[in-house]
Amino acid sequence: MLLSAIQKANEGHVVAYGDDVYTRDAVNAIKKHFSEEAEVFFVLTGTGANVLGLASLTESYHAVICADTAHINADECGAPEKFCNCKLLALPSADGKLTPDAVSQHLHGFGFEHHVQPKVISISQPTEMGTVYSPGEIRALSDLAKQYKMFLHMDGARLANAAVSLNLDFKSFTAHAGVDVLSFGGTKNGMLFGESVIFFRPELAENFRYMRKQGMQLASKMRYISAQFITYLNSDIWRENANHANAMAKLLLEKITGLPDIHVTQKVEANAIFVIVPQKIIKPLQDKYFFYVWDEARCEVRWMTSFDTSTADIEGFTDCLRLLLS
Fold first, then answer.
1. What domains are defined for the chain?
2. Which pTM value belongs to this model?
3. CB hemisphere CA count around 279 (13 angstroms)
């Protein structure tokens, strides 16, 4: 469906840089799912969405508070620090989540010129550990941020998986839960490319169009991103793909439960499974199935399921795993 949407958008001519009917329709689709008052901007990559979203909220003397496992801290090659020119305060978190109590310990030094000024709380939904924030947990962080005149940013690269896990619509745990800026992605759930930055407070987006251009994230042929978002949201393919990925993670969990020397370390709430395995099986298993070693010291690995993972894939993987463990 998404390839067909791109092919259809390739017919005829439209104005470049987003001044086209596809982009207008895609913006409306996002507003329908999130908030009619939202300001929406399409970008090329998830890192670009996160960096520019954070840059719109910060100055060089500000700090962004995040979990130590957050994508902006661990997997973006220092891009937030380089392009936002501000400090990341990465807090240890066993399950990838931030809590008001943990964040509060770093909310000091306001107005003191020798201290970096906390300005943004950034969370991932789902977290990098595969766990999912409830709307109440998000609201508590938002309330804390507002108390200190800060902002709440959400990295939603896999937001659809969280929505399916919670059995809620998007707005229930974004706009209605007090999120200020959201990086909303589709690439991890079936889209070919393209992400979006959504501002739930329109005044925060006043100068974002210039930042997007300076940040090299303004696509001339934006209609190819927009066409995907239209189909992705209006056809409910986002829900179907995410539901399938989450179901495959549950199936994988079921298949590995009880296997010797296999220890699941996190709740399986979306489409990620974190497991401690014997070191000797990691390389042979990777030779047949790609996955990342998450923590080398603990032999903790991350297994991800996706929108196109099949039951045959799960069976083949677990058969290989059992053979290596025997």
1. 2-235 (3.40.640.10), 238-325 (3.90.1150.10)
2. 0.97
3. 5
